[in-house]
Amino acid sequence: MRRAPSSGADFVALLLLLLLLLFLFGRVRCSPEYSLGRSSSPATDSLCALLIRPSGYPCSEHIVETKDGYLLTIQRIPHGRKALKGKPGPPVFLQHGLFQGGDTWFMNSFEESLGFILADSGFDVWVGNVRGTRWSHGHTTLSVYDKAFWDWSWQELAQYDLLAMISYVYSVTNYKVSYIGHSQGTIMALAAFTMPDMVEMIESAALLCPISYLDHITSSFVLRAVFMRLDEMLLSMGIHQLNFRSDMGVQIIDSVCDGHMDCNNLLSSITGENCCFNMSRMAYYLEFEPHPSSTKNLHHLFQMIRKGTFAKYDYGFWGNLLHYRSLHPPAFDLADIPDSLPLWMGYGGKDALADPTDVQHTLEELKSKPELLYIDNYGHIDFILSVKAKDDVYGDLIRFLKSRGCSSSY
Ligand SMILES: *[C@@H]1O[C@H](CO)[C@@H](O)[C@H](O)[C@H]1NC(C)=O
Predict the structure, then answer these.
(1) How far is the CA of 75 from the centre of ligand 1 (A)?
(2) CB of 387 shorter than 6 A to ligand 1
(3) 320: part of which helix (H) or strand (E)?
(4) How many angstroms separate the alpha carbon of residue 102 from the centre of ligand 1?
(5) Is this model's pTM higher than 0.85 or not?
(6) Is 183 a catalytic residue?
(7) pLDDT digits (tens, 9 = 90+) for 253-293
(8) Which of 138, 195, 299, 390 is deepest in the core (most CB within 10 A)?
(9) Sign of CA dihedral 125, 130, 134, 139
(10) By CB neighbour count within 10 A (0-12 exposed, 13-18 middle, 19+ buried), where does 27 fall?
């Protein structure tokens, strides 16, 4: 039950929420901290150099240009710690979630992190990084200071970023790509898999915390932000980039967490209770995350929560007529995903973002019957950072990938 507070109390609560966002998470601002333009990240500030090679894995950086001019960096780990003779194994593509980057797959030890485990299991691992993240902030004509640079939501991430990245991997490896996505990486996939061009490059797909419908979300933090119309407020304030990270922000989070506040609770209020999150690695995670995204993306997600739809961005009456020649934004039809595409889904009973009720809704609309792994005590972050994820999740996920299609012939 949501009670409508008096407007005075509402205003104070709203200010408090903003302060919480601005100071707990860092500052919302246009970030000057990333280099601009066409050049790729300097070798010292790349995912390969910072996280992957130091762990003893081979890694190369690749720049992919999207149809609308964004320059994305994707990483390739062609094999595990032991060099293999001959050609690389089957390609697998990892797509991170909202406010995350490709680093998310490599932040625990090589025995715990999915990216490393896949490389050591014989896969040719490719790592996606969507526009706006630390690893993918280039554009052919725009800079991160331009409002237009941030004029997109997950819809463009599906239609442009994912298509460009998967096409690149497909053309380099000459094999259909196995897809693994988490959270927003699953919205992108489910939207993109309704496109025939996309699906013919995909071997199989494993979705961690799958999201298409969002109207049963239980995250107290997100529900509060939706209720207060944080998205619309930020847009009306002219804030188009959402960057919860800055040196100051990280210092503040560190000092707040350091014995004064249980940051596990802050994380829980956003993502749901995570059973197996290693709190002693928090400072390390915060060296890389959260990554920036666009306010328009947040607005699109909040539209889905408010309306219970899995549809394109709602521009309002005139905007919809202009963009879609219809009063309402067109819905994505999950039944357009061919049932020949093998799907696997992992979801958790404590997940406050990908709620099991919404997962059921997704399943009802799909033509195919995905293989399912339900873990009662897993929250949203457990699926990537749980210290037990290898046994709880990745074993079954890798069994699924290896059982499908041509990958079994390796
Ligand atoms: C948790 O993180 C600490 C600090 O990085 C590490 O020493 C420890 O091994 C981790 N625990 C597990 C179970 O992975």
Answers:
(1) 25
(2) yes
(3) helix 316-324
(4) 21
(5) yes
(6) yes
(7) 454 345 544 555 778 877 889 999 998 998 999 899 889 99
(8) 138
(9) positive
(10) middle
